[in-house]
């Protein structure tokens, strides 16, 4: 059947235009142009897809209608974290990443996309200041990939195949890591059950000249701040291994950069720097290292290096491309593809707005509010905050063993009362009992936290 | 008509915009945070006492201090020095399918009912987004003929990687994990088809094309063996030439015990025309940020939607989105799964946009997408070959191309000394994005790979070839003008060269200031 629909996204779908172009080519039907595709490779039927909603009015109604079935963290206050965080997104972050120029650019380089290249150079420069390191690459798919690649860098640099990671690490990222370094031997280092801190004796027992890297998260997945960074670093380096630390960027206004307690590679997720959660769409990873060729040459991601010309102008171009798979296919150190450029630009905007004082106040807000929440929840009967011998940043473990109720039940009850409770840890960390990981960011108000405590108190009573 | 064609008197914005650190003025603030409630302070005590001494930041980060209007202005200026697809005729970035990304779809992903969803919310509160993902998987099954999809890979490269991971798991499961350690790809498949399997531990064998534009059967037969794990192949490859004997390739690999993986990153010429299934393919991936209209976002976020046949579905990353007839849910119960390749469920914003795009055009519209892409491309190809002096189209002479063409400026270079780098830079003086030449290594000299898609108008195609016609004339009459381009850009020519010494790398402002 002849298709006479004029599609708004397709200017040449107008019959007279098509006809004019076909006449130019001396053909009657477009099919003549792909006659080289043999009959047996052709798709014969019609794809069984819904009838199109050709008008924008109907399309909007349909998709909005589906989205309306969701309840968002704007509808209800949320205490969920565990790798994806609801932080405040400054309006200018949305303004800039919605600009057609940035939203719809791609891999253009030095000239036509000069502004994009500069914005990305500024992202790497700003991150360099935040983590106090000289080398930062273009972002990775997510924080998990940044950790995976950082640990593979350690394998390449040390030519060793063993990794030591904390038993408290993010379990989802651990699954990613196992997949990505399936040729390496990953061992867990135990933790102190009162504080969550790394068990230094266990580290000493397990580390050897086989160890490529020791990895920690700071703050950890379970929220505590690892305090013995320098001590761990010393042990790691005595064994000729690398110290790789995943650091939450939103903590670095108040917490020391791992670079200053001995980390060789610092990595993590930048979603907290101006990206909406978007059901996990806002994730993006960073990797930073010292300015040392043996590290630089083991980054698989693009570098936009700064150049100058006779007019004194700055320009930026992808550099040391032989490292990447665009430069040398299978001989590259790892594969590389399209990652998360728009989030790099956005994080740059975020850090420019925040400045040093903004990052400090962010950390301060998170510290005070999350500690307030810990304090008042710990006063509820049967509720305990675990790892209370450590200081937590943003997230903390709430244990409900003494309440006689399970996390699933408590979270269902909270949901009925219009609150998203913490991430259930029962499947991931059985030894922590009936516990959930609660998260409090700067957006949380005292009244939200008080309300959480009140509702919880009723639920468990 | 050609003589009267008026080219644009274009000039890109040129702001000489300082690096952000140079705008810093101590004391200025871009944004403020809430003051801490006194009751909170009274309850908690002083934060300085809470922070462990070893972990309290000693020296504040050297971030710039800039007021809000100046931050906005800085980034708006940088945006003006960036040529997004929406501003120009972005046919140049071939293999990337620079198509229009419908603006209505941005409103969906900006809606808090999507943007403020947390991945670990109760499934009851996620029924809308899970329905979109589930239904979109159904669309891709129709489009490809595959049986199951994952949207977890965050880009095309990761899609290929995730397929390589499944390939490895499959052979391991069949007791041949160690033996089957080689994959076969082609030189004109995207480089990630070599690099991602290599990252997964496979050895890589690369087939070279013949004059037909694709490798011959004999070269494949010579390399398949009991060590063959699989073949990673793009069709059509960067040349836009469809490999009509793909099924013979697939049969040979299958008979040797390997699996076949299609790189359908750029499927824009194939919708409703040819699918992975009919070619006997076992796995494929689509780049939803290319042919499925989600914006490219200055290099992501994207989605490499990964499709597999039924026998491989159990290996897909977890979780899988399912429907029990009443509700949609996340299913983690897959013991054979490769695990995870990206956090959570992928960049689902990309899926939401792609879902809306297909809902807006339907099955007939999808076929129209491909037919118009092919028509546009062949129209432009005729104009180029007839009217632009010095351009050539190696291989498969006289044959049509699907959605893109790899041209060569070799003749022009011989005649004038002007090469593809020069033409690329000069084309920006007429308002074009820099074009895609070729992946490395070049096997066609002085390459140029434009890709027409369905969202460009005939008058834009005419403008496009007229620009290159003009540049070719300039090369023959005033080659210096082309070689010293750009003249109308945000910056003038700059010697970027290819630095080979990491000591010369300057990727942060602090390193620049130290030098």
The main sheet of chain B orders its strands as: 1-7-6-5-4-2-3
| CATH topology annotation of the largest domain in chain A | Aspartate Aminotransferase, domain 2
Q: Helix count of chain B?
A: 16
Q: Termini distance of chain A?
A: 68 Å
- Give, in order, the helices and strands of chain A: HHHHHEHEHEHEHEEEHEEHHEEHEEH
Tell me the CATH architecture of the largest domain in chain A.
3-Layer(aba) Sandwich
Low-confidence stretches of chain B: none
Secondary structural class of chain B: alpha/beta
Number of domains of chain A: 3
N- and C-termini, Cα separation of chain B:
55 Å
User: What CATH architecture of the domain at 107-357 in chain B do you see?
Assistant: 3-Layer(aba) Sandwich
Structural class of chain A: alpha/beta
What form of chain B results from the Cα inertia axes?
globular
Structural description of this entry:
The complex is a heterodimer of chains A (461) and B (515). With 461 residues, chain A is of the alpha/beta class. Chain A has 3 domains: 11-68, no CATH class; 91-351, Aspartate Aminotransferase, domain 2; 354-460, Alpha-Beta Complex (Aspartate Aminotransferase, domain 1). Chain A is built from 14 helices and 13 strands. Chain A has helices at 15-25, 56-68, 91-97, 100-103, 114-131, 143-158, 171-180, 200-206, 229-238, 293-296, 325-328, 341-378, 407-416, 446-460; strands spanning 135-136, 162-166, 185-189, 211-218, 242-247, 265-269, 285-289, 304-308, 314-318, 384-385, 395-399, 423-424, 435-439. Chain A has a 7-stranded mixed beta sheet with strand order 1-7-6-5-4-2-3, with helices on both faces. Chain A has a 4-stranded antiparallel beta sheet with strand order 10-11-13-12, covered by helices on one side. In chain A, strand 4 (211-218), helix 9 and strand 5 (242-247) form a beta-alpha-beta unit. The termini of chain A are far apart. The model of chain A has no long low-confidence stretch (mean pLDDT 97). Chain B is of the alpha/beta class and 515 residues long. Among the domains of chain B are: 18-51 and 63-80, no CATH class; 107-357, Type I PLP-dependent aspartate aminotransferase-like (Major domain) (Aspartate Aminotransferase, domain 2). In chain B, 36% of the residues lie in helices and 9% in strands. Chain B contains 16 helices and 11 strands. Chain B has helices at residues 38-44, 47-50, 68-80, 103-110, 112-115, 127-144, 156-173, 192-199, 217-223, 246-255, 348-387, 410-416, 420-427, 458-477, 479-483, 509-514, and strands at 148-150, 182-186, 203-207, 228-234, 259-264, 283-287, 304-308, 320-323, 328-331, 407-408, 447-448. Chain B has a 7-stranded mixed beta sheet, with helices on both faces. A two-stranded antiparallel ribbon of chain B has the order 8-9. A two-stranded antiparallel sheet of chain B has the order 10-11. The termini of chain B are far apart.
């Amino acid at each position: 059947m002849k298709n006479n629909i004029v599609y708004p996204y397709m200017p040449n779908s107008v019959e007279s235009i098509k006809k004019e172009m076909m006449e130019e080519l001396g053909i009657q039907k477009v099919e003549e142009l792909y006659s080289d595709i043999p009959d047996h490779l052709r798709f014969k039927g019609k794809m069984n897809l819904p009838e199109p909603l050709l008008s924008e009015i109907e399309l909007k109604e349909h998709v909005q209608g589906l989205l309306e079935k969701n309840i968002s963290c704007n509808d209800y206050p949320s205490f969920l974290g565990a790798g994806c965080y609801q932080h405040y997104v400054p309006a200018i972050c949305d303004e800039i990443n919605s600009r057609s120029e940035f939203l719809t650019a791609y891999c253009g380089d030095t000239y036509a996309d000069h502004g994009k290249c500069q914005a990305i150079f500024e992202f790497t420069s700003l991150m360099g200041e935040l983590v106090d390191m000289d080398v930062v690459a273009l972002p990775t798919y997510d924080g998990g990939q940044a950790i995976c690649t950082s640990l593979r860098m350690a394998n390449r640099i040390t030519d060793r195949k063993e990794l030591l990671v904390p038993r408290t690490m993010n379990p989802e990222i651990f699954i990613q890591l196992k997949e990505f370094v399936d040729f390496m031997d990953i061992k867990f280092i135990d933790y102190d059950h009162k504080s969550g801190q790394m068990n230094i004796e266990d580290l000493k027992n397990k580390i050897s000249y086989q160890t490529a890297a020791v990895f920690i998260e700071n703050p950890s997945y379970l929220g505590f701040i690892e305090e013995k960074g320098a001590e761990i670093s010393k042990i790691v380096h005595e064994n000729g291994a690398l110290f790789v630390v995943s650091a939450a960027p939103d903590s670095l206004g108040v917490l020391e950069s791992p670079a200053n307690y001995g980390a060789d590679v610092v990595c993590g997720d930048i979603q907290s720097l101006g990206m909406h959660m978007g059901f996990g769409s806002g994730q993006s990873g960073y990797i930073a290292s010292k300015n040392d060729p043996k590290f630089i040459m083991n980054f698989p991601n693009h570098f936009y290096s700064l150049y100058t010309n006779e007019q004194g102008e700055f320009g930026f171009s992808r550099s040391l491309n032989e490292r990447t798979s665009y430069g040398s296919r299978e001989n590259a150190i790892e594969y590389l593809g399209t990652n998360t450029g728009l989030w790099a630009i956005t994080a740059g905007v975020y850090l420019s707005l925040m400045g040093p004082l903004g990052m400090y106040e962010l950390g301060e807000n998170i510290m005070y509010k999350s500690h307030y929440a810990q304090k008042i929840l710990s006063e509820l009967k049967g509720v305990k905050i675990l790892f209370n011998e450590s200081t937590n940043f943003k997230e903390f473990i709430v244990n409900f063993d003494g309440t006689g109720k399970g996390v699933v039940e408590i979270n269902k009850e909270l949901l009925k009362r219009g609150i998203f409770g913490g991430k259930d840890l029962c499947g991931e960390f059985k030894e922590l009992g009936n516990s959930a990981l609660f998260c409090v960011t700067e957006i949380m108000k005292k009244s939200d936290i008080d309300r959480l405590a009140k509702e919880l108190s009723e639920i468990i009573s | 008509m050609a003589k009267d064609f008026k080219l644009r008197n274009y000039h890109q914005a040129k702001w000489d915009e300082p690096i952000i650190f140079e705008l810093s003025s101590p004391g200025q603030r871009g944004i403020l945070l809430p003051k801490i409630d006194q009751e909170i302070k009274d309850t908690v005590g002083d934060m300085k006492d809470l922070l462990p001494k070893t972990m309290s930041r000693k020296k504040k980060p050297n971030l710039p201090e800039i007021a809000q209007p100046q931050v906005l202005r800085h980034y708006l200026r940088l945006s003006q020095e960036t040529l997004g697809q929406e501003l120009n005729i972005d046919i140049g970035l071939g293999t990337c399918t620079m198509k229009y990304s419908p603006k209505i779809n941005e409103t969906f992903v900006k809606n808090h009912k999507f943007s403020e969803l947390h991945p670990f919310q109760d499934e009851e509160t996620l029924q809308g987004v899970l329905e979109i993902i589930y239904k979109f998987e159904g669309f891709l099954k129709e489009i490809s003929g595959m049986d199951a999809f994952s949207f977890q890979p965050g880009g095309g490269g990761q899609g290929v990687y995730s397929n390589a991971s499944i390939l490895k798991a499959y052979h391991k499961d069949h007791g041949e994990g160690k033996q089957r350690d080689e994959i076969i790809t082609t030189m004109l498949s995207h480089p990630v088809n070599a690099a991602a399997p290599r990252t997964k531990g496979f050895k890589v064998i690369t087939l070279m094309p013949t004059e037909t534009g694709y490798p011959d059967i004999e070269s494949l037969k010579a390399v398949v063996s009991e060590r063959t794990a699989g073949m990673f192949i793009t069709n059509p490859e960067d040349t836009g030439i469809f490999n009509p004997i793909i099924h013979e390739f697939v049969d040979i690999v299958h008979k040797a015990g390997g699996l076949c993986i299609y790189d359908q990153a750029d499927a824009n010429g194939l919708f409703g025309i040819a699918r992975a299934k009919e070619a006997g393919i076992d796995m494929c991936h689509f780049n939803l940020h290319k042919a499925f209209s989600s914006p490219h976002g200055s290099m992501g976020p994207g989605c490499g939607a990964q499709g597999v046949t039924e026998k491989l579905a159990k290996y897909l990353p977890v979780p899988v989105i399912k429907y029990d007839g009443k509700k949609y849910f996340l299913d983690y119960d897959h013991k054979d799964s490769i695990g995870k390749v990206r956090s959570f469920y992928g960049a689902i914003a990309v899926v939401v946009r792609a879902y809306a795009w297909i809902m807006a055009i339907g099955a007939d519209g999808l076929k129209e997408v491909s037919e118009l892409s092919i028509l546009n491309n062949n129209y432009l190809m005729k104009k180029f070959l007839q009217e632009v002096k010095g351009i050539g189209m190696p291989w498969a002479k006289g044959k049509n191309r699907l959605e893109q063409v790899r041209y060569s400026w070799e003749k022009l270079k011989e005649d004038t000394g002007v090469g593809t780098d020069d033409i690329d830079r000069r084309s920006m003086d007429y308002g074009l994005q820099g074009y895609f030449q070729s992946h490395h290594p070049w096997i066609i000299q002085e390459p140029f790979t434009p890709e027409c898609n369905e969202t460009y108008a005939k008058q834009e195609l005419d403008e496009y070839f007229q620009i290159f016609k003009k540049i070719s004339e300039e090369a023959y009459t005033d080659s210096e003008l082309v070689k010293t381009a750009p003249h109308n850009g945000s910056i003038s020519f700059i010697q970027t060269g290819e630095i080979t010494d990491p000591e010369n790398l300057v990727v942060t402002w602090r390193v620049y200031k130290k030098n």
